[in-house]
Design goal:
- It contains 7 helices and 10 strands.
- With 200 residues, it is of the alpha/beta class.
- The chain has one domain: Spore Coat Polysaccharide Biosynthesis Protein SpsA, Chain A.
- The chain has a 5-stranded mixed beta sheet, with helices on both faces.
- Strand 2 and strand 3 form a beta hairpin.
- The longest helix is centred in the C-terminal third of the chain and has 14 residues.
- The chain starts with a strand and ends with a helix.
- The relative contact order is 0.19.
């Protein structure tokens, strides 16, 4: 059994959206609410939720997460990652997830974790859709020191680029499941897909 934590990154500034994308309506909830309602908490020792908006924190409080406030989101993605890692204690690895993927299923997360176990917790596990990397990504605990060196908007992708031989890509067919709500167009696509799936 791998000892994993999850870090959900939810403190971005939503610059391309023009408003807080996590609070946009989706079904009978919000983008964030739908993501959190589908997240497989039982697969992790701890789920750390990094936020900067109090409305976002209020939604997250309804779920079994450890809240981690990011008072300076403008510093960049690296700061959010380092804050999340400071609250993580898992010995084998950590999965980084982004909170604007409301169509992501628990089965997909389970598949990624199973591959991490198969690789003896030594590989970076990256989902791949149409030949492109996606989120969430699982990193071995040995990557902690490298994350500590990141600055600005640098994130886990920098580690993947530096050590391609350490990366294990897991192909998935469902492109929509990995859609990030980064732009108004992305959001409309997710809303349409949600309606097709009959989501609530």
């Amino acid at each position: 059994m791998c000892r994993l934590d999850a870090i959900i990154l939810a403190s971005g500034l939503s610059r391309r959206m023009g408003c807080n994308k996590l609070l946009l309506p989706l079904g009978n909830s919000t983008v964030l609410g739908q993501f959190l309602s589908r997240f497989p908490y039982a697969l992790f020792q701890k789920v750390v939720f990094v936020y900067c908006d109090q409305q976002v924190a209020a939604i997250a409080l309804q779920y079994p997460v450890v809240l981690c406030n990011n008072p300076s989101p403008e510093v960049g993605k690296s700061h959010s990652i380092q804050l999340g890692l400071s609250a993580s204690t898992a010995e084998d690895g950590v999965m980084f997830a982004v909170a604007d993927q409301p169509l992501l299923t628990s089965a997909t997360t389970q598949t990624l974790i199973e591959m991490f176990r198969e690789k003896k917790a030594k590989k970076i596990i990256v989902p791949e859709v149409d030949g492109r990397p996606a989120n969430p990504v699982i990193f071995p605990a040995t990557c902690r020191s490298e994350f500590a060196e990141l600055r600005g908007d640098s994130g886990g992708r920098q580690l993947i680029i530096r050590q391609p031989g350490r990366v294990c890509y897991v192909p998935f067919a469902s492109k929509e499941e990995f859609c990030d709500v980064d732009t108004p167009e992305n959001y409309q696509n997710v809303v349409t897909k949600w309606q097709v799936l009959g989501g609530n």
